[in-house]
Structures are given as C-alpha cells and as structure tokens.
Predict the structure.
Amino acid sequence: MPLTQGQVARYHRDGYLIVENVLTPREVELLRAQVNIADPASGFTDASGKTSRLSFWGDTHSTIWGAASTCPRIINAIRILTGEEVTFFHGKVTLKEAGTGGAWEWHQDFGYWYDQGYIFPRMMSVSVALDANDEANGCLRVLRGSHLMGRMTHGRIANQTGADMERLTKMMPFFEEVPAVMPPGAALFFHCNTLHASGQNTSDRHRRNFIACYYASANPQIGGPPPAQRVPCPVGAEDVIERYAAEHNLVPVPAA
C-alpha cells in the first residue's frame, strides 16, 4: 500500500489522510472478535453523561493489537507521512455501543501528550475502522488544516481532556469540519495537533475502532530516555495479524 506524493501532500496540508483497504476483511474480522471492553473503569463520559469505552495497550508483542500496530500497511505509512523513523507510543481500542455510545469532545492529542514532556509535535495517530464509521454511529470529525495553528490550551470536560471551548468556538469558522466516514478496514492518519472530536452513537450499530499512536524516535522528551536509546517500531510481516491469530487460536467475527 504505497502512498502517493499527492496523498502525502494532502496529509501535510490538511493534517489528516483517509486511506481505504488498509486492512483486509479477514483482518478486520479477527480484530473485531477481540473487542471486549467490559470493565466499567474503561468508560469515559462526555459532557451529556453518555459513555464511550476504551482499552489500552502499550507494546507491539503481547496482544493482537500490538501486532496490528506493526502491520507494514500501517507503520510504513506512518513513517512516510512523518518523514522520519518512529517509535510506538501506545494504542487504544474504542467502542461506542449501539444507541448509547458517548461523544469524544474536541481535542488535540498533543494537548495532553505535551504534558508528558515531548518537545515537538512530531507525533501522530492512526484510527482504523472495524465497523463502518458514519455520522449516525459517531465517526471522528476533524478540522481540516487545524494542525497548522499549534497547540491549544486543554482542560477537563466531564472526565475527558478537551480543548478550550471559548477559544475553539471563535476559531472554528476558519476551518472546515469534515466527518471521517470510513468503511471497515479504512484508516484515518492524523497529526497530533489536528483538532478532532466525535459525536454520540445514535444508531443501532456498534462503532469499534483501534487507534495506534507513534512519535518520532528523535523527538526529545523531558525526563525521558535520550533519542539514541529509542527503539524504532518494528515492521511486521505482511500477514502479521493472521499469524498472531493462528498462534493464539483466535477466530474471526463477521460484521453484525
């Protein structure tokens, strides 16, 4: 899945890029089968009181999600878009349950990663759709080009981290708000300063995604290891997801 020069240029202009068919239907089914976020502590409440659920992972070897983070169709695209070697940061499985899933408030990822000591916004994420993502089930929404204005002040909104809404309301007319509508297997690559949010799931369908996050291996971090000690994210085999599933006897689940 090589990216074209035009796709790379659009990413740097818009702060995001949607690419379809990053994962195969079978890979999507294998990953979908592993979404099981039952712990009440995994819930994050929006300003209206509705809840979305998250499950985190922090390495590239102990779960199928870590294996997926090394899929060459994902990690090589990250390296091309950043233009430098990257290290795996962390990942999240997200679930908005049908009819009840809550919203994610407007924020930049660097709005809180900055507080972990990273000096530069040389960081990005990829959100991969395991179900069809549309406006009814709460797809991500991005402000095109908002990564170019720098980091905003962030604070608490319910039990989420969100951008300063007073300033955001005044600046939103300067940007186009774009819904990231995606079929299963598509991926949204986005810069860490791109403002994004998502609505509530008002549909009768779940919305399941996984998000993997990376930072430039040479990006200094206050109190962190020197860049020379960073381990670049490994690039897995083309069938790394299916290999992991076979080794751990995981079976796929078709879409409902």
User: Anything to note?
Assistant: The mean pLDDT is 91. The chain has one domain: 5-247.
